[in-house]
Give the backbone structure.
Amino acid sequence: MRLIKKVKKKGKNKEYWSGDVIKYSNALDLEKGIFALRNPRKIVLSLKKSAEESKRRKAGPFQSAMSMLNFYINRAGKNLSTKQKKILNQAKVELRKAFNRK
């Protein structure tokens, strides 16, 4: 099991477990920097490939990919620029298309 680093912020020790989920997810092996890409289609293709190739995921490929994308959007929250949030939300639309979902 990986230990979570404690980061000192504004005089307080704060644990950041969410970063470890993205880096060390037991469900998907994600490409480094996937969520920083500027092209929603490239994000989707990488997520789809990771989800379909994973043998460790507990849900189907679509649900695993969408869950990881939503997790990142929710955890990044106010630290995401408006432009990047728009790109990631467009990636959700593209992900549904890639898996032939509504």
The chain has a mean pLDDT of 83. The chain has one domain: 6-98.
